[in-house]
Amino acid sequence: MQSQEEGNLVIARFYPGEDILASLDEVCRRHDVRTAVIVSALGQIKQFRLGYFDGEGYRQKDYAATHELLSLSGLISRSDSPDEYRFHLHAVVGDEEQKAFGGHLFQGTIEGTGEIVLLKTGIKARRKTDAAGLPGLELE
């Protein structure tokens, strides 16, 4: 993984075999991220899990095959523990027939390349599980 920062922008390049969430965590630590928005992301992922919140919990599905990472959006914030990051990420992927689908990204492994751009902010935010079981955003 490589990353560089200029102003509030962090650009990261992930390599095949890297865990996307673990690599994002490392980028956040390296660049002292408090809260960040994913501005852009593309590449390929495999062995990933997407989910859909049905009102009672997440219905999750695993995908082994390589797919194009067409888009990744979401927020990165700290958890209640200042040493932990929380990722609320939604991914759109495309298959070999160029059909797109997506959902909440729970895990994934980079294949080919992963290029992600983060916009850092000083806004204090954290995730707190609400009555519906969702880890909702709380602004401090």
Q: What is the number of E strands?
A: 9
Query: What's the architecture, going by CATH?
Result: 2-Layer Sandwich
Query: What is the CATH first-level class name?
Result: Alpha Beta
> At the third CATH level, what is the topology name?
60s Ribosomal Protein L30, Chain: A
Helix content, binned percent: under 10%
Count of runs of 4 or more consecutive helical residues = 1
Q: Taking all residues together, what is the mean pLDDT?
A: 92
Number of domains: 1
The name of the CATH superfamily reads Hypothetical protein, similar to alpha- acetolactate decarboxylase, domain 2
Write up what this structure looks like.
- The chain is mainly β and 140 residues long.
- The protein has a single domain, classed as 2-Layer Sandwich (60s Ribosomal Protein L30, Chain: A).
- The chain is 8% helix and 64% strand.
- It is built from 1 helix and 9 strands, in the order E-E-H-E-E-E-E-E-E-E.
- The protein has one helix spanning 20-30, and strands at residues 2-6, 9-14, 35-53, 58-63, 67-78, 85-94, 100-121, 125-129, 135-139.
- Strand 5 and strand 6 (85-94) form a beta hairpin.
- The longest helix is centred in the N-terminal third of the chain and has 11 residues, at 20-30.
